[in-house]
Design brief:
The structure is a homodimer.
Chain A lengths: L10 E9 L16 H13 L6 E2 L8 E11 L8 H8 L4 E9 L11 E10 L12 E3 L5 H8 L4 E4 L14 E12 L2 E8 L6 H14 L6 H8 L14 E7 L5
Parallel strand pairs in A: 3-10, 5-6
Antiparallel strand pairs in A: 1-3, 1-4, 2-3, 5-9, 5-10, 7-8, 8-9
């Protein structure tokens, strides 16, 4: 549909995409290594008999998981929007599942429209790692104090310049973001950091997680998070926690009915 | 240590073994395909410089997981029993983790001594499968009524002849076992069947799970489980649920101090 006049019956489809990121080099097309975007494009082409180029909301890194990433594409297929998920899931490998498909307005763009993003960072905090959660969590041997972590996380609530929590190799100029909610939840030997905001800088959730782990270990006092924010430089914050602990839980678009 | 006089300083070590069964052809040594037992033997030999043949408590099937299987072996190593776990974990692949090692009496045998075994069977009950839990649960699309499943499970409590819940290709004569506890727990879109007993027949937990799923779907009334028990034939029960949903949670030995 890219060339010539727009078809009258062309439509924009939104996909809600869940994936196990273990075996992918992230979302975005790469010259070396398979990505989620590539697998979606290939299977959509096979299904719809058109060249399809999806646009993803969040270009997750290698090894990062998602339960609700969002992608759009334009098509003139006659398959109803809400039926595409079923047909596409028949073709996709087991580690990528479309949770929902539906038609959206032609001007809806998953990165340009306002959204609330929610991430979960999972830590396995036990004496030994757990084989069955190793691909979906960061193993920390030393006991973490989750109450200190929650106290530290509270400094991140609201609008701040998160420059200290952004990997240095980024091109973004505006590093101000708003965190709506951040909670540290402990269940048995598992600690989840759940954070939602209007946007996240490159590696921001993983640097927040790495910093909160330092607090949980007692290496940083909780107030240190305020000092890190004030410094506005990456070196002030803790290390970037590993990819496997991160899951993009959901994306909400308040303006999308 | 197999030949000649027993060493005075020989000792029996118990391992508590957790593994992700996805990539193994079960516990027991196989001519074709790698097993957990084989990987333990090979790495113990490399660590202790002795031929080691572990004896496992539960010879789990291909694809079944464990958080607390138990194995023993005899050794004359000078490494203290409780330190072997640390040294062995350095060598093992990430999908097998020793949770505990310790010296036990020389007459302790993990299959001959009385034990309480606890299994969990996990069902992902949602509209679409979840990529991040697909290797550790059985995906069921149609909504399950977990209250009916709990009602049905109650018929299994106590001592019964579980012949109907045993795969036909077994050599066991005595099919009487005692279930101490069985619970069906629902959390969001996940249903766990947790069952503990003094022993389980071949495929028993998976046949119980497959039968309870039938009840949850409304295909069997809960009382049907009583009828299945009475019939004492495999064909009376529901299908065997898939391996990936099953996890051996723990083994307790009341006589082991």
């Amino acid at each position: 549909m890219q060339k010539g006049m727009p078809y009258l019956d062309m439509k924009r489809i939104m996909l809600r995409v869940a994936y196990d990121g273990t075996n992918y080099c992230g979302w975005q097309l790469q010259p070396n290594g398979i990505t989620v975007e590539e697998v979606l494009n290939r299977n959509l082409k096979a299904l719809l008999k058109e060249d399809i180029n999806v646009i993803g909301a969040s270009r997750t890194d290698s090894g990062v998981h998602a339960l609700g990433n969002v992608a759009i594409f334009d098509t003139d297929t006659r398959i109803p929007g809400d039926k595409i998920s079923y047909a596409l899931n028949q073709k996709l490998p087991g580690d990528i599942v479309i949770q929902e498909s539906r038609e959206v307005p032609a001007d809806f763009h998953p990165r340009r429209c306002n959204s609330i993003k929610t991430y979960r960072y999972t830590i396995q905090n036990s004496r030994f790692p757990l084989p069955t959660t190793r691909l979906y969590s960061y193993f920390v041997h030393y006991p973490l104090n989750e109450l200190l972590m929650q106290e530290a996380a509270a400094y991140l609530m609201g609008e701040h310049d998160f420059k200290s929590f952004c990997s240095a190799n980024t091109h973004v100029k505006d590093t101000v973001r708003r965190i709506y909610d951040i909670n540290v939840e402990k269940t048995d030997e598992r600690i989840d950091i759940i954070v939602s905001g209007n946007g996240f800088l490159y590696n921001m959730v993983r640097i927040i997680a790495g910093t909160l782990v330092r607090v949980g270990l007692g290496a940083y006092p909780p107030i240190k998070v305020q000092e890190i924010l004030n410094k506005k430089e990456r070196s002030a914050a803790g290390p970037k926690a590993p990819a496997e602990g991160l899951t993009l839980l959901k994306l909400e678009y308040p303006d999308l009915m």
